[in-house]
Design a protein that fits this description.
Blueprint: E1 11-13, E2 19-21, E3 25-26, H1 32-45, E4 49-51, H2 59-72, E5 81-86, H3 88-92, H4 94-109, E6 114-119, H5 129-141, E7 145-151, H6 155-165, E8 171-175, H7 183-192, E9 195-199, H8 212-221, H9 225-236, E10 239-240, H10 247-252, H11 263-270
Parallel strand pairs: 3-4, 4-5, 5-6, 6-7, 7-8, 8-9, 9-10
Antiparallel strand pairs: 1-2
Amino acid sequence: MPLEYGTSVPFVTLNDGVQIPQVGLGVFQVSPDKTDETVLEALSAGYRHVDTAAGYRNEAGVGDALRTAQDSLGLTHEDVFVTTKLANGDRAGGRDAALAAFDDSMAKLQLERLDLWLIHWPGSDQQNFVEVWKTFAELKEAGRIRSIGVSNFQKTHLRALFDETGVVPSVNQVELHPWMQQEDLRAFHAEHGIATEAWSPIGQGGDLLADETIGKIAAAHGKEPAQVVLRWHLQLGNIVIPKSVTPARIRSNIDLFGFELTDEDMSAIAGLERGQRLGPDPDVFG
């Protein structure tokens, strides 16, 4: 894959040397009949990273958009980084279920090789994910996946992977925003060379973006509150995958490189930490 994806978006180099664009489009809760047009809008706006999952039921729409983009935008898979995730039921099913699920995702995405595959959740019983992780490693070794990682894993889950397989994930994708900053987990990631990727990076919009502190910083920079929060992530080194189906917001969410937050701005946003999850607790979900 080339070192340039034709955009101003910087890369994070993963622990296996693979480069991932630091900003991508998340398609969680994008309806299947809207996914194709949403992904095409993002690609035309300069996104070169798309994050989906088997559980979102819109992998086929992503695949259709990638195929259409070859003709309409001159883009091939070599230009676009694609992530998907193993569904909980298939993770619970162990190796055979994981292999079948991988083939199904690849068929829907219309890809020969995947850029990044994640275990979506560890599972409340914390079973199966080590066995499945070995399967992920096999597929990477066979050249069918460029990078492998996890999502919603806590430190105890990550240690189980290290201890039992010796294979360190490239990425851990977790809920992360100014109200849930995951400082301890981010430090653990840094210690072990795991990239931090944030889902719900702008806290699902709404109340977080209406916060007075965020608003003041946005006004000072002449930017939208969501741009300020996403810029905060980038300056922390996080990968972000904001979701939108609105063309103007899709474009705004990648327009993050003409300004920089000050140390005072960063400290003010750090002060918004509440430890408040907006999504499920990984220790009890799935």
